[in-house]
Every structure is written in C-alpha cells, then in structure tokens.
Design brief:
By secondary structure, this protein is an alpha+beta fold. It has helices at about 10-20, 35-45, 80-105, 125-140, 150-160, 180-195, 235-240, 300-310, 360-375; strands at about 25-30, 50-55, 70, 115-120, 150, 170, 175, 195-200, 205-210, 215-220, 225-230, 250-260, 275, 280-285, 320-330, 340, 350. The chain is globular.
Length: about 400
C-alpha cells in the first residue's frame, strides 16, 4: 500500500475541491454538509456509481463531527421508538465490515473495537432506573436487544480499578467505539480517492428544483445542479429544508469533553462517561446542556465530569487533564433521527441526527442505496418529520 499524505481540514479545499471541480457543474447527487453524516452518505452514493459533490461550510461550521465522543452506542436508544433501536442495532452490526473497508482503502487506523459498552451507576436509584430502561428496550425490540445488569462485585472482576462508589452497571454487547477524528479523516480520504468532488467554504444560499434537477447556489455565487440533493448540514439543515418543502426542527445541544494525558491501557471498552482512546488518553464527557449556539466550556461542568470519573475509577484523581472542548449535538424534538424525501420536490432528502458515528455504517450502506434508488424504505418511514405534526 502506498504511503498516504495526511489529510487535514486546511488541505481539504485544495486537495478535494479545486482539482476536481474545474468545469464540473452537474452531478448525480449533491450532499450539503461535510461532517460525518454528509460524508458517509456521499461515500455510499459513490459506491452506487453516482457522481457526487459535497458542499461543505468548512471549519466555520459548528461541526459536531469534530467534537463527538466516538461511541458506537446501542444501549438505551429507541425505548420510545423501536424502529430507532432496530436501525441503531443494524448499523452497529455493519460497523466491523465498514471499518475494515475504510482501513483497507485509506490506510488510516480507526482504533475501532466492539467489545460491548458499560453505563456505570453510582447509586441504587440510578441502577434501578437503568435496569427499568434496559428492560423496556428489550421488551419493545422483542428480545432483539441483549444486555446484562451487573452488581459491584461482578464488575470488580472486570475492572480491578473500580471505585467503591459504583453500585452497578448495565452492559450491552452491541456497543463499541472508534477514533472519531480518524473516522472523519478516513471518510474524506475515501471519498476523495473514489473520485468524489468536494468544495469547502461553500455555504448554500439558495436551493430550488428546476425541471428534473435541483439548482444549488452558494453564497459565493457558484451554481451546481444534480438530480438528487441530500441535506445533511447538521443544525444548518433547519434553514435549508423549507427551500425544498421539507422540515428539520433541530436544535443545538452542548456537550463538554475533557481529555487527559496518555495513560497505560486499563479500559479496553467504552462507557457512557469515559473511554480510553487508541493513543492512551482518556475522554471524559456526558453533559447535555441547552445553551443555544454557545459551545464554550465551563469550570462547573468540568468539575462535575471529573468528580464522576474519579468516583468510578479513583486512580484518575492523579491524572492530568490536558485539554477541554465543547461541541454542539444536532437534536430533534424527540432525540430520534429525521430521514425524509420531499413530496413537493422529489429527489430532495433530509438526514439529520446526533448519532453520526453510530449510524455511519448504515448511512454509507442501506441509506445511500435507498437514496440512489430514489425511494426510502418502509423501515425508515417512522423517521419522517411528519411525526412532529401529530398532537
């Protein structure tokens, strides 16, 4: 395998844009949004032998893909929407082949692992609430969801460093994790190597259907056309969707993350609160804050995250924190994804959610196949934004 040149955000415009956009204005599909959701769908459309252009707002965007936690998470998703539980599980099952394919094509080590995941509970009340939630998920999925509720003593065999404050935990074998930045980089590299076209700093100002194709105009005045348009611009999708008769009632939800110095390996599975990366550092974060587009970190939240991490693994009290960040999730009113094709302008699709990592394999596979075919499958009908119009 030939040596790959590192692909950074600052190099994407020249490497993926200028070289391939000379003279090209018409495509089979245009994907608006270059984060994980957009690039995974675009990559999947290329696999369906379509010519594809990604229009990406660039690094000025509140890019959720750059700040996510890297979890491929099944447990707790879909209690109130069984189709979401099934869709999440399906993507998790596709992830091993998806990761292998990306690594083979790009040479990027994703640090993908699927050994199950844990949600630690620090009190009996937390444990009982978690047990009830997991039982409900198993019930609504008719037993397709597997899990265990483990006591403190059972956990000590698996985690010798566990603190006495941990009452118990839920365990789900379907969970895993991946290096999130490596994933984003590899997806862009794979898209580029498969002859995809990419334009950075390309905010969309206007979108309309003209005949059998869509005309997409950027704020810089460039115009492109395609038979299909996929809106996957995260929180920016809310403004774009009505241009083609769609609805995307999303809002930003802040999450803060703390990163520690590299440690010797002690945690080879992800947890809802912390995980150890392939490089050895620890990511700690689980906050959910309604602060609009404010993505700043705060000492109070960082203190609470650190306290819970130390209660779970007391030896972390001696570990040095080296970096913090805040990032904005893309949240729908019920927390579940939105997928839809426009009735008013067939060929226009919307895809927005906060589970871009977990669902990347499904987006590059069955979702992209459906968009290429022109019809979303019945199992995605419950994700239509029409559900928010029902009172």
């Amino acid at each position: 395998m030939s040596k790959k040149v590192p692909l950074t955000a600052s190099s994407q415009n020249s490497l993926l844009g200028e070289k391939k956009l000379k003279g090209m204005r018409n495509f089979d599909a245009i994907v608006v949004g270059g984060g994980l959701v957009g690039v995974s769908i675009a990559y999947g459309l290329l696999k369906q032998r379509l010519s594809v252009l990604i229009l990406d707002e660039g690094d000025i965007a509140f890019r959720a893909s750059r700040g996510n936690f890297g979890l491929i998470w099944v447990q707790s998703k879909g209690v109130k929407m069984p189709s979401y539980a099934a869709w999440t599980r399906r993507s998790s099952d596709l992830w091993a082949d998806f990761a292998e394919q990306l690594t083979e094509e790009t040479g990027v080590t994703l640090h993908y692992s699927r050994k199950g995941g844990y949600h630690f509970c620090l009190s009996e009340q937390e444990f009982n609430e978690r047990s009830t939630l997991m039982a409900r998920l198993a019930f609504v999925t008719s037993g397709a969801f597997e899990y265990e509720m483990l006591s403190h003593n059972e956990l000590r065999y698996r985690f010798p460093e566990l603190g006495p404050s941990v009452f118990g935990a839920s365990y789900c074998p379907h969970d895993g994790h991946v290096g999130s930045l490596q994933l984003l980089m590899s997806m862009h590299r794979a898209f580029h190597d498969a002859e995809g076209s990419y334009l950075a700093n390309a905010s969309v100002s206007d979108l309309k259907k003209s005949g059998n194709s869509f005309e997409v105009r950027t704020r810089d005045g460039e115009v492109f056309s395609a038979a299909r348009v996929v809106l996957a611009a995260g929180n920016g999708t809310k403004e774009l969707a009505p241009m083609v008769g769609l609805s995307a009632p999303v809002r930003p939800q802040k999450g803060q993350v703390m990163v520690t110095a590299k440690q010797k390996p002690f945690l080879d599975v992800p947890t809802a609160l912390l995980r150890q990366t392939g490089e050895g550092s620890l990511l700690i974060g689980d906050s959910k804050e309604e602060t609009g587009f404010d993505d700043m970190t705060t000492p109070e939240v960082m203190r609470d995250l650190a306290a819970r991490a130390v209660a779970t693994f007391p030896h972390l009290a001696q570990v040095r924190a080296v970096r913090t960040w805040g990032a904005l999730r893309v949240m729908t009113p019920d927390g579940h994804p939105i997928y839809a094709q426009s009735r008013e302008a067939p060929g226009a699709y919307v895809a927005c959610m906060h589970s871009g990592v977990t669902l990347a394999a499904a987006h590059a596979g069955p979702l992209a196949e459906a968009i290429a075919a022109g019809t979303l499958p019945e199992n995605l009908s419950s994700f239509s934004p029409d559900r928010f119009d029902v009172h």
